[in-house]
Structure formats: structure tokens, C-alpha cells
Amino acid sequence: MKTLEKENQTEELFKRKNKNLLSVYYTAGYPALNDTVRIGQWLAQAGADMIEIGIPFSDPVADGPVIQESSKVALENGMTLNLLLEQVGELRSGVKIPIVLMGYINPILQMGVASFCERAAHAGVDAVIIPDLPLLEYQESYQGIFESWGIKNIFMVTPTTSEERIRAIDDSSSAFIYVVSSSGTTGARKDFSGEQIDYLNRLKQMKLKNPWLVGFGVSNKTTFSTICDYSAGAIVGSAFIAMLKNSNNFSADIPNFVQSIKAKS
Amino acid sequence: MKYQVDERGYYGRFGGAFIPEMLYPNVEALRTTYLSIIESTAFQNEMDDLLKNFVGRPTPLYFASRLSDQLKAKIYLKREDLCHTGAHKVNNTVGQIILARHMGKSKIIAETGAGQHGVATATVCALMGMECLVYMGKLDMERQKPNVERMRILGAKVVPALSGSMTLKDATNEAMRHWISHPKDTHYIIGSVVGPHPYPDMVARFQSVISKEIRSQLIAEQGNPFPDHVVACIGGGSNAAGAFYHFMDEPHVHLVGVEAAGKGIDSGESAATTALGKPGVLHGSKTLLMQTADGQVIEPYSISAGLDYPGIGPLHAHLLDVGRVQFVSATDDEAMQAGIALSRLEGIIPAIESAHAIAGLSKMNYDEDDVIVINLSGRGDKDLDTYIRYGNY
Asked: Which of B78, B80, B105, B111 is catalytic?
């Protein structure tokens, strides 16, 4: 076992708390190259339960316009996976909550999956979400490497995922499942339709082994609290990035953003 | 057959289906049904009828005597430029639209670079009365205006892709995003042998009619089905896959793929993927890909919008791996001069993509009595502006 002998923070989190979790996504190297660390620090201080850091990629097919734009800017700023892992290491030294990396498979393949896992484990990464690495490819080629470094791989389910496949994903998951709220790319939606509520109900009734967080389209207190009636919590991404784009004062705006979503009505 | 895709969707170490979960049900439905549908009698009868009466197949295998004299070989041109809509692309769109209807889909999306695949898709959608949305890079829309208008006349909606460099790669990204958002009623007609399994195999099968016809036409010409060489240009690689398909298991037939070197392989402005690429994942498959050391996809360049793609189909990456296909490249200049030469010698103005295949002859070894089949994948009407700007004629 190569695992660094310490508890995975995602597991630790779900042991401690399984309701109203807020995970916030932002793109590494955006708005400025060296913002990655301080944004994460502010999020942790403001009470976010988990941090998801996006690995920018030139061709993010599962992302909507806001995250596409942030990835483009981050790459123009000079962000690389190498630098990102260094920044995560720095962030981890002052932050206890789970750190999850989210990105497409190609930059990871170029670094080499084994080398990526080793470096990510040393930097303090707890889990990864790789939207274009499907379950079967993961199991056949990479599962052993990720597990040997103690890095959880988070899979997605969507409104069109069959019940049989949801069960298979649940069986192969640890930590949590990423539930995509509706058919579409990342980005804010106005509210949640009856169809989506039916889908969340269906998931709830399946009594999955793993806790699940809902992402795509969660942008404010209303959508967050709706989601939390069904799930362990929610992931906010595009709305946070849109806020960062217009912010001149992270130290005030990031806590305000987190509070505006989590505050009890 | 030796070079077929395996049950996991791989050609050797290339291929697979690297897709977000949102696309899994669609791609899985295709994977589990495409073979039984396209091998059914009903499908084949409809396909044969449309290829003959709508597309105008078989296309001629034309002996180019003056070109042969000049280049000192026996050169035949497979006249895909005479297909309805002006290129081989329609072989695939006819197949996929019949398939889409069998699968109960009512809407079609496609990506296009130069506009040939977009026009071929808009054409079959008009034929079948299906709604058609074509994503095209904003830059390509400006460069290829006549094809944009052709699609609109045919009733398609052309949507500009505004992300990235606003060319083919970005149009493909946008088409995938649309499919992610509309998974139930929509079929995505990919135009080349790229994308997640089963697309590369499916598109290769639909294009394989090219080499099937070459074989029977050569029997009539020379008494046996085998040329010494088959030459085709490669962007994603659909016309090459079709031209090579029924010769892949005949090791004595030399197969040559000609990539676009742009301004030269080492100029920083090129699309020669086999020379410049490394294994990577883009648009759903693992293949050779032009990319930075950090795994970001590099924007390719070629004078030909149809070869301007940073990858090649996984089948071709595998054929390179095992040494079955020789890959060469031709620069913008070499292709333009070959296009003008063919126009003067044979009265055929080729698409600039296909002109690369002709230019490839000077990069390979052959004897004077060798039979060479060049796949003339498209006609040059869409490229008149580029020919005019190039001058030198």
C-alpha cells in the first residue's frame, strides 16, 4: 500500500455531517494565476464544507459558458496541472476540509495517471471527479492506481442514467456520488422543475449506500435548500465563478456568497 | 478482419468511449443496436437505393492518363467528387440518418468545418423531413459562406460556435454540449471516423462503399481487384477509412495517408497529427492528438478547412502503430500546386483536401507500371476563393 497514512477528508466529512453540505467549485488560476490558494482559504473560513478545484482544459465539453470562460482565462494566465498541484499543496497546509479536483482526463494522462495520483496524494487531494473517464474505463485501467494512493474517484449520475447503472455506480463508489440535476452542461438554471424533483425523489427512494451531492444549476439559497431536502448537499460552481469575475474584494464577497446560500431562512 | 474494432471499442491501444455520463445512454443505445440495424435487410435495401438514386453511386473509377504520363504511374481517380453534394461525406450521412430514424430520433445535430459534412447532413435531413442543427465555428462560417447558405437553403439552422478558436474542434465541442442537453430525441451525426465508440467503426462502415466499388471496378479494368497503392488525404480520416477499408487485410496493397503539413511540419502552423501528435483523449476517444506537454489541445492549421483537425480517428492511429499505413504530409503550397496541376491535366478542379492526396505521390516510392488509386474525396467548387487568393495559375 502506498497510501499516505492519514484519513481521507471526504470520508471524515460524511461521518461528521450528512445534511446541508455545501461544496464550492472554482477553476484553478482564475481570475488570476495565483488566486487558487486564497480563494480556497476564504471558502474554508467562510464555512464551505468542501472545495472543488477545476483543472482547466482547452476543450471542456461538459461545461457551460461560465466555466468554459474561466478555463480559457486560467490557461491564458499560464495555469498547468503541475502548478495546480503545487498550489493545492500550499492550500492544504492551512485547510482541513476535503479538497476535490475536477477535470478532464487528457491533462492527467499526459502527466501519467500514476504520477498524478502520487503527486495529488502528497498535495492533500482527497478525491477527483473526471467527467470524461467513464466507470468501465476507470475500472479496467486506473482503479488500482487511484486506490493505492487513497484517492477517491467520484462518479456522476444524471436524469437519464438507468436504475441498473445507478446501482452499479453506487457499488463502485466511495465517498459520495455526484448527481447531475438535469440534462445539460454546467451552469445556473432558474429553478428546479417537477421533472427534476421526481428524479431526486426517485434517487432518494433508491436508498443508495453512498451519500450524494447535487450539482449543475444550483446557484442560490432557494435552489440549495430545495436540493438539501433530498440529498446530503449541493455543489455550486458557475454562480460562484460569476461572482468572482465581478468581485474586487474576495475577503468580503466570498463569505457573503457562502452565507447567502447556507443561511437559514 | 484483422483491423476491426474490438468488443471494448478499441483498435489496439486507441479508441474507447471517453464520454461524460450524460451521454452514456445515447452512446450505449447506439453501441448495442447499430450493427443489428445496419446489417438488417430493410436498412440495406434503403441504403442501396439512396446511394444509387440519390447520391449517384457507383462513382466512376477514372483512369487519369495525362496525370499518369506526368507522374509516371498508372493512376486512377476514385471520383467521390461526383457524389451528390460534392464529396464523400454524404455516404455517411445517408447511413446515419436511416439509422437515426430506425432508433426513433426526430432531430439531427452535426458539426462541420469546411461545411461539406454540414451540407451533406442538411441534405439528408431535408430528404427525410427531419429537423437539422449544424454547429460551425464562427471563423469557418465567415471563410465558407456559400456552404452556410447552402445549408440554410436546405432548411438547416446553422449555429455559430463562439468558443475557443471558433473552428471545427469548437464546433464539435458545441455539438456535444447540445447533445448533452438534448439526449432523448436527438441523434448526433458525427462526420468523421472520430468520436466515442461506435462512431469510428460506424462511419468507416458507411464509407467502406468506396473501396468496395474500387475492387469491383478494378476487376473490370484489369482482371483483379488489387491496386499497388491506395492514396487518400487524412484530416479525421473518413475518406481514407473508406478507401482503405476493403484493402486493409491485403498486405500487398500499399496504403498511404496524406496529412496536411500546413506551412511545414515544424513551422508551428500544421495539422500533421501523426508527425506532431501524442496519445491523448479528445471528443470521446483515445487517439493521436496535437497537444502541449500539459495536455492542452493545440489549434491546428491547414489551408484546407477539412483537414484542420488536431487529431485523427483511432483506426488510423492504430494503422500507424502497426505499420499498416504509411503516413506522409503535403504543405499548403504542394497541395495548391497539385490541385492546379490536376485541373490543367485532367479538367478536374479538386477540393483542396483531395489535392493533398495528389501531392502525396511525390512523397512515396512507386514503379512506373504500378497501379495507384487516389481517392478524390471532393470537388473544388467550395474552394474557389482559396484558389483565387493563391493565384499562380
From this structure: B111
CA dist., res. B57 & res. B206, Å (int):
13
Q: Which residues of chain B from 174 to 203 reach within 8 Å of chain A, CB to CB?
A: 176-177, 180-184
β pairing state of A152-154 and A156-157? unpaired
Overall average pLDDT of the B347-366 stretch = 98
pTM of the complete model beyond 0.90: yes
Return the SS3 of B285.
strand
Substitution target from A27, A55, A58, A81 for chain B, most B beta carbons within 10 A = A58
Q: Which domain holds residue A170?
A: 20-262
* Mean pLDDT of the region B267-287: 97
- Each residue of B54-111: pLDDT tens digit? 999 999 999 999 999 999 999 999 999 999 999 999 999 999 999 999 999 999 999 9
Which is it for the CA torsion A34, A39, A45, A48, positive or negative? negative
Burial of A222 (0-12, 13-18, 19+ CB in 10 A): middle
Beta strands across the sheet bearing A21-27:
A152-154, A127-129, A99-102, A50-54, A21-27, A233-236, A212-215, A177-180, A156-157
Residue type, B259: E
Give just the sign of the alpha carbon dihedral B27, B31, B33, B39: positive
Number of structural domains in chain A: 1
Average pLDDT, chain B: 96
Q: Which of B78, B89, B169, B286 is catalytic?
A: B89
Cα–Cα dist B129/B156, whole Å? 11
- Out of B283, B284, B294, name the one closest to residue A110 (CB): B294
Tell me the pLDDT tens digit for each residue of B226-253. 999 999 999 999 999 999 999 999 999 9
Domains B20-50+90-203 and B56-87+208-390 share a fold: yes
Please report where in the chains the cell 457499488 appears, as a residue. A171
B178 within 8 A of B343, measured Cβ to Cβ? no
Here the cell at position A197 is 424533483
Residues linked to residue B107 through DSSP beta bridges, in sequence order: B131, B186
CB pairs under 8 A between A and B: 106
- CATH 3.40.50.1100 describes domain B56-87+208-390: yes
> Looking at beta carbons, which residues of chain A come within 8 Å of B16?
137
B312, B237 in Cβ contact below 8 A? yes
- Cβ distance of B181 and A183 shorter than 8 Å: yes
Q: Measured in whole angstroms, how far is the alpha carbon of residue B49 from the centre of its chain?
A: 22
Instruction: Please state, as a whole number, how many other Cβ atoms lie within 10 Å of the Cβ of residue B392.
Output: 8
ipTM of the complex: 0.94
**How far does chain B reach from its first CA to its final CA, in angstroms?**
45
Q: Which residue of A has its CA nearest to B294?
A: A107
Sign of CA dihedral B111, B112, B116, B119: positive
Contact B243, B230 (CB under 8 A): yes
Q: Does A255 touch chain B (CB under 8 A)?
A: no
A12 belongs to a structural domain: no
CB of A80 less than 8 A from some CB of B: yes
Mutation target vs A (from B10, B14, B24, B286; most A CBs, 10 A cutoff) = B24
Which pLDDT band, with edges at 50, 70 and 90, does A84 fall under? very high
Q: Name the class of domain B20-50+90-203.
A: alpha beta
